[in-house]
What we know:
11 strands, alpha+beta, two-stranded antiparallel ribbon
Amino acid sequence: MTSGRLxxxxxxxxxxxxxxxxxxxxxxxxxxxxxxRTVTRRGTELLVSGAVRISALGGxxxxxxxxxxxxxxxxxxxxxxxxxxxxxxxxxALTGPVEAVAEIRVTNANLPALVLDELxxxxxxxxxxxxxxxRVLRSVRQxxxxxxxxxxxxxxxxxxxxxxxxxxxxxxxxxAVDRSVLRVLADDGRAGITAIARAAGISESTARxxxxxxxxxxxxxxxxxxxxxxxxxxxxxxxxxxxxPDRFDDVAAHLLAEPAVRQATAVAxxxxxxxxxxxxxxxxxxxxxxxxxxxxxxxxxxxxVVLQAMKRSGLRVPAGGPAG
Length: 324
């Protein structure tokens, strides 16, 4: 890894882990056409250094997006406080009047306490708007930047289980064994079957069977967590989009065709969509925003540049560290 950016082989390995965070090094090597020994060594170095980490989010997928204004000089403190919450998925400091954004997983039953009690008591928050997530159009684990070819991506994709859509209900109860497996994955999203079995106190066949079930049923979602700048996309921004009537599906299709779109969610609030994009520079962001077809389908687009990520995919970003 060079200063602030990965080299070409590292980028290929990280992109492969973004497709399947638990892909064996042998399969990664076969798909990208590099020696297995080299891929194993470089991949392990990336994980040990923290340049890439494998998150394994579990539980329900009901969430809200919190858009916040902060007290003078308190943006860092406010975003850090949001990131410390166990139910926080991501937390970013932003430019503009919306100085902080966070996604917080919360069921309908717990939403009143979050809005009326917890957020007003958060250090540094001056004013917060809470917008329930209605539908996930693209999860960050589905981000496919222009690094791998479609054929390579297809060779790495795990059995499809889509994106669990939020419904606000309590998560389905899991067995003690399944909860044990999830605890192991929370510490290490790439934990092998032997490690899972040993830590959970079960046989390897049971560990493999329960892990497969948890993945297929959408109770856990392994994903690679990496700062976009390391992949060559140093400019990250949040787009707040208000769509023209009857054009939502068209806008959604346009967004999902854009490799720059890391995440896109439909929300109930002032805006229709919250879109996270990562691009190479200001010129690329301008091109994305000024495309005629895009502008014809929306009423307004407000842009907030991400100044710093304090949390990504449920993992805290180490202060001064390379990982995301």
